[in-house]
Amino acid sequence: MGAEFWEALANLDVRTVIIGVLLLMLFSCGMAFFRAMLKGALVPRSTHEDIIKERDLWRQAHQESEHTRQAVADMLDKVIDQATLTNDLLKQLKVGRR
What we know:
It is a single chain. By secondary structure, this protein is mostly helical. Helices cover 89% and strands 0% of the residues. The chain is built from three helices and no strands.
């Protein structure tokens, strides 16, 4: 760094230097946070594994729920078909009595 840099630095106000140092510290902390986020160091591995297990458990519960819902819907379709057939049969019996 040349003499011009140090002359310019010597002419700065103290408040300007403090703000510059604080901004530099903030930038450094931001970069450290960003690196830790990319590496996955922000969440402990055990917590991450617990979350994955819980996610898989919820996924399995959802799949079972969907299978159950589909089975109930199939049964309901059968009951509706039987009710329609019974209704038609009763109408035919009623018409035949006249």
